[in-house]
Queue: 4 jobs
Job 1
Amino acid sequence: MSPHAVAFLVTFVAITSARQLAFKAAATNRKGLVRSLLFGAAVMSAPIEMLVWIGFLAFVPLGQGVLAGCIAIVAVLVGGRIAFHEALTLPRLTAAFLITLGVALAAGNH
């Protein structure tokens, strides 16, 4: 992948992960103002996420892009562990490993 594609991918993963964690925090927070601010920030970040995704896809083929974008799932898993102390069960770790392996294989072939 080109340096531009990597920059777009890292930005996409960061925005997507932050957005998903903001939704989770809004769902678990009981204070109205904090809850609505987190929810609003998560919703308002969707257009930015979409533009970054389109920018990323301008540099890589769709198939490779979708596989590489799946690494955001692993980032959300790690973020959930850090922010919400979620358990890292064997099925979750297995899924994260397989996703990471698939992304590495896809990136290595291009």
Job 2
Amino acid sequence: MPKIEFLSDAKSIEIEEGESILQASLRAGIPHTHVCGGKARCTTCRILLIDGDENRLSPPGDEEYELVKKLGFAPNIRLACQSYVRDDIKIRRLVIDDNDIDLAMLKRSDDTGKFSSTGVETRVAILFTDIRDFTSFSDNQLPYDIIHMLNRYICQMRLIIERNNGEVFNYMGDGLMALFGVEKESWAIENAVRSGMEMLEAMDNMQPYLQETYGQGLQMGVGIHCGDVVIGSFEDSSNAMKMVIGDAVNFASRVESANKETGTKLLVSQTVFDRLKEKIQIGKTCSVELKGKSGEHQLYEVLSISD
């Protein structure tokens, strides 16, 4: 009988006649997630075919075909509950824990319509993040693993931002930009700094997962500034995209980049410090030249923020 090697679980099992991959893994004691009960109504049992021709698995049925077509899965990503083995294969489970389940079940709504295409000027707190040494990390990983890790990372950071009344406005590879105070400025700066602290904590909590799954850890930098921006939407015949422009956006990006030369993780501008100096604990105080900006600018490393 054909064998299945589960790389993420370091197990090899022999398939029984008429048994799906999900049934086989559960029989072997592998904690294979299947929120819908193996009925092709979700994708939490999804697997990645690592080694072997896709013809070693049964072709997708109608239910699986419609689901993976809608989500745009590659041919080597299948639902374990609908896949039957024809020959020896190596696979990896893609939904390992609660964070992955949340990611797999997440449905996002498009809310770009609330921003006029002519633009709206407003004062907001701007947060930028960037993963350190991501290029060297990418060089040592499979392309799918890189995308999966980024999805997991971005999903966690996005939830933190939204919990603190912020909104992600742009993803830039391994970084993102979020705004606080788009609807109402009150507490925007404080919410941004709290998000930054929580994001760093979440990244620390990811280290065991990163070490176990990818063989190396990752760190991130956060930069926060407050200023006036223009928010609008760019529309074409197929979709609408939010856009944010203004000198404050560029300045916030430079604040985040300064973490690299100062050896810090969270830096804020003078504007942010002036608003929160009674609530935050400061580490380093840095006077740095920011790319594209004249003169030196005072930046502050934030270590904690009081409740």
Job 3
Amino acid sequence: MATIPTGKPPLLGMTLRQLEQACQELELPKFTARQLSDWLYSKNIRNIDEMSNLSKAARARLDSAFTFGVEEPLSAQVSADGTKKYLFGAGTQRFVEAAYIPERSRATLCLSTQVGCKMGCLFCMTGKQGFQANLGPGAIINQVRSLPEREQLTNIVYMGMGEPFDNTDAVMQSLEVLTADWGFAWSPRRITVSTIGIIPAMERFLRESECHLAVSLHSPFDEERQRLMPIQHVYPVEEVIRSIREHGLGRQRRVSFEYILFEGVNDSSRHVKELARLLNGLRCRINLMRFHLVPGTPLKGTPEEQVLAFSQALNDKGIRTTIRASRGQDIDAACGLLSTRELVKRTLSDH
């Protein structure tokens, strides 16, 4: 599977065990690994030379083998509602996005895990780019580490470009860095990973992490969901939900289902009835989302009155349902739009 090519690997994104291995290979004391993790994940520095409690010789050895790994965003779009969409470089002519979403009592970062995506969902702009590369753990963590508003963050969601469980090793390593005491020491309850339902990787995540899970649902009917999301052919949603039921979730852990409403496609009373059957007895929540129009798709968003009625009907069935507020509508709000525009612009300028 393609990965972004690099020269020297970044220290950012490495686990404590990997840092210890690196120190051993460079013949540095084992305790240096803890010093490195502190500089990487607790201090606000940008290069190896700023690690002032390391000897000059140690810094020189590290610099010969690694980069620090923090890369600033290339640009930012700012919405009138305070949402900020950051564009990051991800190799030659490759770009990913991260969205900072401030609210009254919380501030969320929506980050990316891949450049493009191979899943081909009908409603997704990122999928129209095709798959280009996986992000390494450092490039995932960099979206947090280099964020100007990092100190204000309360929540992180893996809901940006790419399918997290198509890049499982890097995603799981980034989660370890975010939640470990030697890393960012975040509570896993403040992190949610979204998937379209790749069952083997999802089960690994449920075993090895305590972070919340979100599943892209979008229709409870097989043929309909398959038209929207080709992955349904490989991992039917019934099997995805059965897997979640069999794993079991503790009282402190949440599973939610993301459901974009498309006019005349998945917003009828029969959909409410089938969702109630499918999710019966599962402690979960449905997040309804308004569709952000993307070029080249025949889909249209459900009118607001019907969105409200659909939400009420699900709640009446005993399924906790919320409507996610649309943010950043005056900028490239739909995931993948900003990076696609930049990709097209750079390609045209090259020619």
Job 4
Amino acid sequence: MINSRLTSLIRKEFIQILRDPRTLALVLIIPVMQLFLLGYAATNDVRNVPLVVYDQDRGPAARELLNAYRAADYFQIAYDVDSEEQLGDLIDAGDARVGLIIPPGYTDQIKSNGSAAVMFVLDGSDPTVASTALSAAQMIGQQHATQILAQRLERSAQAGELQQPLEVHTRIWYNPDLISAYFMIPGVIAMILFFLTTILTATAVVRERERGTIEQLIVTPIRPWELVVGKILPYVILAFLNMFEVLAIGHFWFGVPIRGNIFLILGLSGLFLLTSLGIGLLASTIANTQQEAMLVVWMTLLPALFLSGFFFPLEAMPKILQWVSYFFPLRYYLVIIRSLLLKDIHVSAIRTEIIALVIFGVVLMTLASLRIRKRLD
């Protein structure tokens, strides 16, 4: 008798689960998504760091040095420029993480058994990438110097007169001490704006539907857009308050610099909020309950968390995941907020990221508004 009652209860629960296929699908998909994201994206094994080269020598010894760095999979020679200004612009914009400056006369110094020095410039705004690049640059330089020294020993019996042929000097910009807080706190600001507005917006509209008060709001003179603005504006204000809180604590307690214009930071943060609000509103039109809304939002939040560069460097991920990351607005805002806080760059350096946020914001808010209008009608 007891087994019969228990069996009936279990059967009833399975029937209820199967009657909600969307929730069941989300529950089955999320663990698989976590598995792939943690398996491929959760890594600090940085490879193929974009490298910009300013070669003032253009001689055979310089080409041998570049081949040594090209042969190792730590760096990918992505740009060849003609001035230090161009090199600095590429690093400011985040297109290159490392710059190699080869001085004029490098080949002559190496061929005459002298000593030459090259300069590595590293973007320290991401300590993980910068630390790996710093170690790799010095290690590859030492290995190449050892090869040159061995060649000189073969040509000369006077080993005692030989000197170290190559020195790799390094200079770290923006975060010379590689303090991790300088990297994480701007990311926390981005995550607060994204998580808070997306989750609360998604559940706010659905909550009205669950309680049966959405019908009462519909019959009032309130227009659909007024209803949407009235529901989301408090959460926007709350998100900005949290942003100021984290920014103030990060600056005054952890010493994170604020080198960019604060009004530009606020303006671009507001632009980013359009994307997170759009995602939250879209989720509210898909879900019928707050539980469903939370699951739908987590389907977006989990990939954004791992594929935006918040925890793990994008350079360490497989190429396919790097391509997928372009579909998440958080990736672009992380570049913007870290650049404005740590680098004080010109707007032109982050023009691509701003345009991407504008496109995402317009598309997401338009889709969300159309779906909400249809649901309210």
